Amino acid sequence: MENKSFDLNSMDAIIENFLTHIKSGQSIKDGDLPNIDLYMDQVTTFMDRWLASSKRYDTDKILTKTMINNYAKNHLLPPPEKKKYSKDHMYLLLFIYYFKNILSINDIQKLLTPLTDRYFQSTEGLSLADIYSQIQSVTNEQTQRLEKDIRLMSSEAASLFSDQSEDEAEYLRLFSTISLLSLDVYIKKQLIEKLIDQFPFPEKEDKKH
């Protein structure tokens, strides 16, 4: 097995490159979405093109036909109209994409159902476009806060294990950085689940469980 060269400079470079990447704005803005309804192939092509930078591996799939069908089957996504997906479908698919690595399908369904019931293709009052745009409007500030948090965690991890050999310290500092980042994700995930569990979401009439 090849022994890859990895030191603290490598880790710092990876972190800096990542922070530059997230600051460059990888999220899809409302104005980026097509103003016409799309067939499924067009939906998957659009998502794959715009979210390609979030892939871990080149072979990863952002969105597939099977995924879309499963989302509809699990009531995360309303069915298409004449095999076409509207802009509102796209908003929901983006929310699902951001949620799915953190939340269970049941939690996503619970969270999205009121949104879909009240605002999907709404012609009066608040729309899904309004909601998506307002959330997007504060992402720059949120990204700046996350950048500061990541730098602080990296700095704290770099100060540890100074009494160890260079090789040992490099691995232990990497492990510490990942541990601190993981703790941050773990705590936030728990809070998200608590909020979902405590909010009085309306019960479905067709309860079968």
TrEMBL record:
It holds the Pfam family DUF1836. InterPro entries: DNA-bd_dom_put_sf, DUF1836. This is DUF1836 domain-containing protein.
